[in-house]
Each structure stands twice: as C-alpha cells, then as structure tokens.
Amino acid sequence: xxxxxxxxxxxxxxxxxxxxxxxxxxxxxxxxxxxxxxxxxxxxxxxxxxxxxxxxxxxxxxxxxxxxxxxxxxxxxxxxxxxxxxxxxxxxxxxxxxxxxxxxxxxxxxxxxxxxxxxxxxxxxxxxxxxxxxxxxxxxxxxxxxxxxxxxxxxxxxxxxxxxxxxxxxxxxxxxxxxxxxxxxxxxxxxxxxxxxxxxxxxxxxxxxxxxxxxxxxxxxxxxxxxxxxxxxxxxxxxxxxxxxxxxxxxxxxxxxxxxxxxxxxxxxxxxxxxxxxxxxxxxxxxxxxxxxxxxxxxxxxxxxxxxxxxxxxxxxxxxxxxxxxxxxxxxxxxxxxxxxxxxxxxxxxxxxxxxxxxxxxxxxxxxxxxxxxxxxxxxxxxxxxxxxxxxxxxxxxxxxxxxxxxxxxxxxxxxxxxxxxxxxxxxxxxxxxxxxxxxxxxxxxxxxxxxxxxxxxxxxxxxxxxxxxxxxxxxxxxxxxxxxxxxxxxxxxxxxxxxxxxxxxxxxxxxxxxxxxxxxxxxxxxxxxxxxxxxxxxxxxxxxxxxxxxxxxxxxxxxxxxxxxxxxxxx
Length: 572
Fold this sequence. Notes:
The chain is of the alpha/beta class. The chain folds into 4 domains: 7-190, Methylglyoxal synthase-like domain (Rossmann fold); 198-230, no CATH class; 249-390, 3-Layer(aba) Sandwich (Cytidine Deaminase, domain 2); 408-566, Cytidine Deaminase, domain 2. 37% of the residues lie in helices and 17% in strands. It is elongated and about 95 Å long.
C-alpha cells in the first residue's frame, strides 16, 4: 500500500508543549491521529486531526476503557514493511502508523494520594497507552513516552533521520523501561509490597569493579524512585568532573559515603544550632579518617573559617589521608588547594589525593590539585555547599545477598541534643562546643562501618574505630588511631604551636560516640581512662544502669537515647 503521508498517533495525559510538537509534525507533512481530550486540545489549536474512532469504526466503549485497543490501530503499528503486510493493511483499510507519542495515566500519583482506594488505583491504571507503547516498540516505530523526547524527535526528523536503526532501537528500549516501571508500581501496590524490582539506566562504565578482574562494572541511575526524571541534585551523576580520570568503582563508593557523612554533619548542626558551618572531611575506603568544622577553638587564630576546617580535617590522620579522598562544603580557591596538598606534609612534599570534591574550584585551584596522568579527580557540585537537613538521602537502600536482595529505608535520623542538660556548671560556650563535638562524632560514627566508636575533640575527629566485632575493641581502636595519628604528626614539619603531641593524643575532655549500646562497662572504662568526659550512646543493654552509675562516679556526661530509635549501624 502506497503511503502518501507519514502518520503520527498522539494521545497524551501531559499536554505540555504537545501543540507545538503536533504543529511541527504537520509542518513536516505528517498526518495526525488522535482521540479524546488530546484530539480536542489539538483541534482547538487549529490542527487537523483524524479521530481514532473514524479509523476503527467504533466509538469509545465501556466508559472509555476501550478506545485504541483495536486491530486497525495495533495492526498499523505491528505491520512489517513487507509486501504481504502492506497488502493486508490495504485490504482492511488500516493506516501504517510511523510514530506514537503517548504517556501514561499518573498511576503513581494516585497510589500516593491520600484517600486513594484499590478501585481508584485500578481506574488510573493505563492499558491502552501501555499497549500502544509496546506495539510501537516492537514494530520499531518512533516511540515517544516522555515530554523531554518530543523536541529531540523533531530535530532528528529535520536532520534527515540519521542512524535511524539505532535511534529507533533506543526509543523502543526507553519505552519498555517506562512500561516496566509502570507495571512494577502496580504489582508492588496490589501485592502490598510482595513484589519489588530494581530498575536502572546505565550512566557510566568503570574500568573495573573493586578489583581489576571484576569487570565489566557500571554505574546506573536509579529509576525506582518517584520523579526519577527530576534528579537528586547530589546524585553521583550530578557531580561534574572538572579534572582527572573518570571515576572508578571504588571512587564512586567513596563519593557516596562522603556525601552521606557530610550531609549528616550539616544536618545535625543545622537541627541543633540553626546553621551549617564550613565542614571538611577526609576518607579512606569510605570511612572518615579526618573531619573538621570551623567552629570552636582554632589551632591558629588568623585562619579563615574554611581553612580552619581543612586544617582540622588533615590533622585527623596525616598518614591515612595520603591517597585518600576529600569533600568540602565550601568553594576551593588557591589557598585551600595549597593547604590540601602541602599543609603538614613531611618536609613540604606533595600530598597525593584521589578525589577532591567541593561546590566549585578556581582555575588556580584546579592547576594546584591536578596530578599527573589524571590520578586526582576533581568533582564539583554547587548543591553540596552548606548542605544540611534538606539534603539527606531518603531513598530506600538496596543490597544484594546470595539469591536475592535486601531493602530498607535510608538512615535519616538526626538527634536533637540542643536541650541536653549536663550535671555541671559549664558555660554556654563550652556546652555548645561539647554539643558540636557530639554531633560531629555522631554523624561520622553513624555513617561509618559498624561497629564504630568515634572520638572528637575541639571540633575535629581524633580517632574513628570502625568495623569492629565488639564494642571494647572499637573503643580501643578509636584511641589507637588517635594516638597513631598524633605520633605520626610529630614527624611533620609545619604543625602549629600549641598542638599537643605527647606520647599519643591528648584526649582529656574529649567526646565519644558509640553507634549502639554498651553491653558491658569495659568499653566506657577504656574511654574514660583516657580522659574522655562526654559519651553519647544508645540505651537498651541489660547493663545500662551499671554504665550510668560508672559515668556518674567518674564525673562523665552520658547521653543515652533508645537503641530502637537511634542506633547508628551503617554498611553492616
């Protein structure tokens, strides 16, 4: 059958820009088929439209439930470009349809709507649209299921349809994933969560996974969450690579963990003090080895706030940060870049970093931080600047286990310690400093591998005892790391005067956070013996009373919140 005009079927719920799209097609010589509200919308705009009912010979039936589900529509989408199929189309007066522009009823909105019922959800479940998209995809027609693709298709048509087979295949695959997500939402709803699925869109390929032999390895965008088209501003793919090689699998894991840690620090301080200060964190293998906030006593009085945070972060562990990764919630200029590379380095030697991530970088900073062969990745994202409560990741977390996967809500708990009362007569300034230390310790410990005990003093991380099999081991490791960091710093050349570098770290009046309760009093005793005066843990141990009594006898401030509500296990 000779086809004089190409035919487009347009039936959309979201009519944003649909008139301009249809006019563009008409301008290119296309015929428009439509129905219902879309047909009226286009007709009112002066666009000539052939109603679907005229082609099928049937009006909409069953309360508009059946309209396009007809052989004269789907035949026009599934027909092959062969003489036999063309002859059948001509025999039954079926138009060959070249393009489908369809979106689906907002099922997810109905599911999430207060007061929705199973019946209302069923009524908002699109069948005709799903069938049109799948028929169009199978027939390798031009398949448009998203508003953002309409203009792209017009440009492609105007440019002479380059790489046609690849273009149509990509559009078909996109339609299939949209339909898959739609069906998964329906299945999850009707099974009350009995069925779940993971959907993603490949964004980047890594050279390999955690180890060189683990390949291929890919980063996928998460298509499971609502409004997946409106990207999370702090999502990995929204960080711009300013300099250096593409991110590796391990780099991506480190960036994800740094975002989790720095946003929790910001959220804790914002919730308790009303604002987010300058924050710097350094990590090794995902766990913070250094962190500083630009508040409280400084090591040198003439420091800017951002430089103060960097200095405190570096002093957390000058050895561990070598080859580590850094995230800052403030812009990086030449001075900050110099501090990151040279501050406290042995005899002024260059400090090697794998990643530096921040809101922005000056040209001078990029030049200073860049390494040969692109080994230092510089990542910029303005959304990390002073990130706080509104930037916590609330999307469900998934984890593969043998034969299946686990899912759980994200860790979004933020303690309110601003009204904490201590059993002493400390000044408000000192109390505020202690609270900030507690919040910094909590945010680091609750985003480090459990079991964790974290020690903080004067707004900087001293020791992070992560991933231990018992609580006393975590306490000992936190102290060991603090001592090791202090002893290593003694060999550095530009440590400021006034920094205590005795045999180990000066932990007198420091604070400690435990990501769960103490089963025995041995771990608190280890911490208290080194001068720690404030401990934040959860309650729920059979020995809670003994631990409370121990701290009271030793004059130690103890904050306990219920383990069932506030436990900070992470990456278990």
